[in-house]
């Protein structure tokens, strides 16, 4: 699927990434022999360690392809080797870089203004702004438009795939924040940028990309149009308990955000074009000036932190600035790294979800091998006292964890505590960060930076430039407590069913008139059905949100009204009201209020 919890994957490998900003590196690039030896050793070792069946790697330098290699199998069942020239991999969100390039072509031609309201170009766009603050193309390309995260209606089934226009008109999430405030990676935001390309060009998005990017760059095996019958298409796999299982293919609605299929060879053409400021073998897709603008830092939370370019994000590691993009879909994992100062680009794609570990370790191993440089850790001369640092303590939640619907509660699983432990030292995720400047900290055991924006109650990690963390400002917020409350309230219902059945059976065995609270038991069963529905929404709504779903979304509210009505009827009729019935109603009311506070009743 297109939507993957990218921030979870990046958190696992954060210690391997990003650094402070040294000016230069003295090491030299490897020759072909050195590079091939390094890649063979690295890939063979890591693919075996993480059970990755196949991969392709391509490296370019100084306008030429230095090395292209395939490792393992593109198709395990048929024993088809991974071929950098022929094997087509699904590269997921690397699509966003291509989409951004198409947008910049329109900018270069004067057809769009990067800073103007996008509704000037899409007047019928059904999107309500916050405080009338318009969204610009700049906001879309830097992931600062303010969209909430959405895991619904992204598409999977071929026969239920909708057009890009329908996906935009019916599948855009609402806004969580004003544009320009925070980076929050958004698939739908970049899809909207792609729809803008389609709208202004007057042609289907995939046709525009083929004519204006793939054709001039001779990317003859690349496409945003997906066919499972393509003979050179790689198969992807999951691995569990010694067994590989082929993953199903997805047919996503938001093509510009993640539908690109390509080969390692084609991606060398794309990397060379960007490293040469828009030019490839006599063809030009961007002017020097436009390409330079696209590659510049366009948004960052702080000048000392890596930020967003247009269609790329930054990494600073081993004294080098990289611009890059990754992608994951259907167990395919890919990464494209560009090192502009070294005129070098690296592309890697794997056909296993575990390939994430391989691709995100590759760049660190490559830089440490050929550009070794470990900036010294220089602590701030006048660090904040532990008492001053306590003002930034609290639980911080990834801003991509703010979802509509039941899965919004999942942010409690991703909340991380930040604590002040001594003067100039804080901890987060059990990692120690030492203060090196105003509001700036560095991981004690790696090059990772952490910046705290105390004014806006946010923080950012250099290892994850595509999102920020927001502090939960409530003094009583505790993720463990929230999870415990929900579980406690939810367990009332299966326990009520079990208890009612036990009492009924015991009464029968004792030959007594058995009273069975049919209404309460039916309500409990329906509450259990609701919870099963709630945890299944990501799968049920993957292609779209059906109208019948709203009945289930509001089922707890309807059941609460049923219990209230029963209580009123019994009081009016002067019938006996038991303590258990009152407590049961109170538990149901508490649950509904709690679910509402966590946004369970919307999608």
Secondary structure blueprint with pairings:
Elements: H1 6-12, H2 32-49, E1 54-61, E2 64-75, E3 80-81, E4 89-92, H3 95-108, H4 137-141, H5 164-171, H6 187-201, H7 205-214, E5 237-240, E6 243-246, H8 255-258, E7 260-262, H9 264-275, E8 279-280, E9 283-284, H10 288-295, E10 313-317, E11 320-329, E12 332-339, E13 344-350, H11 355-370, H12 386-389, E14 394-398, H13 411-414, E15 416-422, E16 425-428, E17 431-437, E18 440-443, E19 449-453, E20 458-461, E21 469-471, H14 479-509, H15 518-534, H16 537-540, H17 549-553, H18 555-572, H19 579-597
Antiparallel strand pairs: 1-2, 1-13, 2-3, 4-7, 5-6, 8-9, 10-11, 11-12, 12-13, 14-15, 14-21, 15-16, 16-17, 17-18, 18-19, 19-20, 20-21
- Poorly predicted regions: 1-26
Strand order, biggest sheet? 14-15-16-17-18-19-20-21
Give the N-to-C terminal Cα separation.
Answer: 19 Å
- For the report, how would you describe the main beta sheet? 8 strands, antiparallel, barrel
Radius of gyration: 27 Å
Q: Structural class from helices and strands? A: alpha+beta
Strand coverage percent: 15-25%
Total strands: the figure is 21
**What does the overall shape look like?**
globular
What is the helix content? Answer: 25-40%
